Sequence to fold (191 residues):
Amino acid sequence: MNHFNWNDGFVVDFDLDTGKSDSAVTSKRPLSVVKDIFLDTDAAAEILKKEDPMIYEFHELGAPERKGDLAFGTTVIYPGKIGNEYYMTKGHFHTILETAEVYYTLQGAGYMVMENPEGDTIEKPLKKGDAVYVPRRYSHRTVNTGSEPLVLFYTFDADAGHDYGTIEENGYRKMIVEEDGKAVIVDNPRR
Ligand code: MN
Fold:
């Protein structure tokens, strides 16, 4: 996968509408793989009896996990809900906690939901054209509250690493759910 020259520089295409790239490797996260991140497990099970919708995908370039390099790529979260909870990414801490990340919204609308180990939370609404700065020490998850795919470009320290486990067990303290046709921030009853 490392067909890019990370020492001499390179140019790569990303489609502004879909986030796709001819040069990136695509990873897919259908509901069957991420069903446990949603609160309403009955709703997830009911959907999975009939179909296995795609929740999100990401397109990455396989950056060397080397100090000083920057990993970058795109994430696409599809529109939809499980129960009243919007489609979202699993979310993660960086293994090297003191590393930030930037996301730029190419299409769609949603939220970046963030939380640090001390329990401080940040929820930032995003729409096309918005860049969001995820500060050091904050776990981060992207939520699609719109009716079209939410497409984001991201970049972070290539050696930061991903820690999915810490936030996985009980989820984030804050959830983004639909109430009366609007996206609202509510407390996670599991926390
Ligand atoms: Mn990250």
Residues 92, 94, 101, 140, 156 surround manganese (II) ion (CB under 6 Å). DSSP finds three helices and 15 strands in the chain. The chain has a mean pLDDT of 96. The two ends are 39 Å apart (CA to CA).
